[in-house]
């Protein structure tokens, strides 16, 4: 998965809070150094719910 960046302030066609995309690596590095954008942390993967397949619900 590609790293994502969020605008900390308005820059070009992006407003503060927007996910920034379509920029070259050099543009991204420049904006990061200037503090205009920040890397978005990847959300922790949700834990899968463990279900027991051998349990069967019965009506009765």
From TrEMBL:
Instruction: Give the domain of life.
Output: Bacteria
Q: What name has this protein been given in UniProt?
A: Uncharacterized protein
């Amino acid at each position: 998965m590609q790293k994502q960046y969020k605008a900390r302030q308005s820059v070009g066609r992006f407003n503060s809070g927007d996910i920034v995309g379509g920029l070259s690596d050099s543009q991204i590095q420049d904006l990061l150094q200037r503090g205009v954008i920040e890397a978005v942390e990847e959300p922790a993967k949700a834990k899968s719910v463990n279900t027991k397949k051998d349990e069967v619900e019965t009506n009765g």
